[in-house]
Design brief:
The chain contains nine helices and five strands, in the order E-E-H-E-H-E-E-H-H-H-H-H-H-H. The protein is of the alpha/beta class. It comes from Coccomyxa subellipsoidea.
Length: 246
């Protein structure tokens, strides 16, 4: 339901990354009309002054809630919680406080574990100009360890928390979705693989993965993969240069 006309209830500032997909999938699952503003990471658009007023950390995604006086919200997990907790039908975030604690635990598991560790695996495996085996082994191994935690949870549960599909599932899904890009494997994790496939088949998830543009991971050729790596290396170089983080 990504909108073309301006000033719907929400404006999402995002790019086609696991963190960027988390709020777009959440919005699609909730059926909330929203506008999309694509942020060009390769052009460091997220470091421009206008964007830093929305997210002082200069990272995507960010959301502006026009229903509450243009409230800016940043950090993907905070955006997901903001949207889901305000849904009267509690589709993605239960009303029971005990179940809410379960959801938040698995959401923070992704925010503090899967995302950072798999992000470093991506960096050392795909983007680093110099291949450092220690870095590759360290972060790919840790990603696989965290995946095993998910696998163990899903052995006896259909969903990660609260006995229902929630923002915790969405948050972890977007990262597991690109597992092969990160050097991780699901070959010995049948429950995680089944959970991944079940979520990926959801129409709202498919729509959310195509925000802000057609999802390149669905059918990426070797040439497109190499181009994506080259663009990411260029971006990584620009953000590590002196003054780039200002």
């Amino acid at each position: 339901m990504a909108g073309e006309s301006p000033r719907k209830g929400y404006t999402l500032y995002t790019a086609g990354t696991p963190n960027g997909w988390k709020p777009s999938i959440t919005l699609e699952e909730l059926g909330i009309p929203y506008d999309v503003r694509k942020i060009s990471l390769s052009d460091n658009e997220q470091k421009q002054d206008w964007f830093l007023k929305i997210n002082p950390n200069g990272r995507i995604p960010a959301l502006v809630d026009h229903t509450c006086g243009d409230v800016p919200i940043f950090e993907s997990g905070a955006i997901m919680w903001w949207l889901a907790s305000r849904d009267p039908e509690a589709k993605l975030f239960p009303k029971d406080p005990i179940k809410q604690a379960e959801v938040m635990s698995w959401l923070m598991f992704q925010m503090g574990g899967v995302g950072p560790m798999q992000g470093q695996a991506n960096h050392f495996l795909r983007y680093a100009p110099v291949k450092i085996e220690y870095g590759i082994n360290r972060y790919v191994h840790e990603t696989n360890r965290l995946y095993q935690v998910l696998e163990d949870q899903l052995k006896d549960h259909e969903w990660l928390a609260a006995e229902q599909y929630t923002i915790a599932d969405i948050a972890n899904f977007t990262w597991v979705y690109i597992h092969s890009w990160s050097g991780a494997s699901l070959d010995d994790k049948p429950n995680l693989k089944a959970w991944l496939d079940k979520i990926a088949a959801r129409p709202a998830v498919q729509r959310g993965l195509d925000v802000p543009e057609k999802n390149k991971f669905k059918s990426m050729t070797k040439e497109e993969e190499e181009k994506a790596i080259a663009e990411a290396q260029k971006f990584m170089g620009s953000t590590s240069a002196p003054g780039a983080q200002k």
